[in-house]
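Good morning C.,

I know you're traveling, so I'll keep this short. The sequence:
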Amino acid sequence: MRILTQGAIAAGMLALTACGGTTQTPAENAADNVEAMTENQADYLEGVAGNTSNDLVADTLENQADAVREAGENRADAIEANAQPPADVNGM
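The tokens, ready to paste straight into the viewer:
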């Protein structure tokens, strides 16, 4: 399952890089990619939780999915907050 998850994440990252626009800074792109990746991981965990018959395991997986989402949002915010302002091309 871990290989399947990593493959899905890699495919998602490739799709995101293929459709990246030029209006965002590299930090914004990186932050968006982090959020998308963690969202995919959380969705996967929720899918596994939905397929288990053990309520305790399902609750644990749901909590883990929430934690992954929160960590992704925090990491994306940190990436954007620590981004350096773009250099002025004209030197002004």
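Safe travels,
E.
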